[in-house]
């Protein structure tokens, strides 16, 4: 059975597609068979990222390790579930399947969360995004879980009833500031406190870097730069590669030994 990694967050702009792409291609580079599905049927940022990669590779004559992008077919007349059908296409030939969810609540996203062996929730490092996980009073005290956390709880219950095993939930602190700021410390403390209450792990994600916006049109990731003639990486790029290495290590995926 493929290990299913769901990248989910009901707020846009948190770096889901960047995270999905870098996790998927890092696993492919390490020799794993990787399937991919973009569940945001409207924007399709992850799907277009992979399509850009295929087009760039063909144009430049490169053989870049690339996940297989599955297709969500329109619902048929016999009411076939499109997610189940797409998963069945990928499952037999994938060690890992990455599901990139939209930045809103949809039925596809809800279904995907019940399939997650590993759930990764990128969030911008601010109390605005913290609200996705929990409700706070004006003094910063946690009042209770928010709607997204409640959805994850429901997904966990459904998996338990089906005997499918637990969800390993990781919250990524994306766009971390490079300096130690008062707000950064407060967000970190609040996350650690909340993690014990609703059951997730906290991991550092990606800092805000221009390189991520520049890579998308060619479908490239940080690990491809040397393959496309970038002989000398900048200090920012080297730091970003280390962030990716730390992220893959933090995911603690079965059978994965970080080697890049």
TrEMBL record:
<dbReference type="InterPro" id="IPR027417">
    <property type="entry name" value="P-loop_NTPase"/>
</dbReference>
<protein>
    <submittedName>
        <fullName>ATPase</fullName>
    </submittedName>
</protein>
<dbReference type="InterPro" id="IPR050678">
    <property type="entry name" value="DNA_Partitioning_ATPase"/>
</dbReference>
<dbReference type="Pfam" id="PF09140">
    <property type="entry name" value="MipZ"/>
</dbReference>
<dbReference type="InterPro" id="IPR015223">
    <property type="entry name" value="MipZ"/>
</dbReference>
């Amino acid at each position: 059975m493929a290990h299913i990694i769901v990248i989910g967050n009901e707020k846009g702009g948190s770096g889901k597609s960047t995270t999905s792409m870098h996790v998927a291609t890092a696993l492919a580079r390490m020799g794993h068979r990787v399937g991919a599905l973009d569940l945001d049927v409207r924007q399709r940022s992850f799907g277009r990222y992979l399509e850009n990669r295929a087009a760039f590779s063909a144009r430049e004559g490169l053989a870049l390790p690339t996940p297989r992008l599955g297709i969500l077919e329109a619902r048929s007349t016999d009411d076939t579930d499109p997610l189940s059908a797409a998963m069945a296409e990928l499952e037999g030939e994938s060690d890992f399947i990455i599901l990139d969810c939209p930045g809103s609540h949809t039925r596809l996203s809800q279904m995907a969360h019940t399939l997650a062996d590993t759930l990764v929730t990128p969030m911008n490092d601010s109390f605005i995004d913290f609200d996705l996980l929990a409700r706070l009073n004006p003094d910063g005290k946690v009042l209770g879980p928010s709607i997204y956390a409640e959805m994850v709880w429901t997904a966990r219950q459904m998996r338990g009833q089906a005997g499918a095993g637990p969800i390993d939930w990781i919250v990524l602190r994306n766009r971390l500031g490079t300096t130690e700021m008062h707000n950064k410390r407060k967000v970190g403390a609040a996350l650690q406190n909340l993690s014990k209450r609703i059951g997730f792990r906290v991991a550092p994600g990606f800092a805000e870097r221009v390189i991520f916006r520049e890579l998308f049109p060619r479908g490239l990731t940080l690990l491809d730069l040397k393959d496309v003639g970038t002989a000398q990486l900048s200090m920012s790029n080297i730091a970003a590669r280390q962030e990716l290495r730390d992220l893959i290590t933090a995911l603690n995926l079965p059978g994965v030994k970080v080697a890049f």
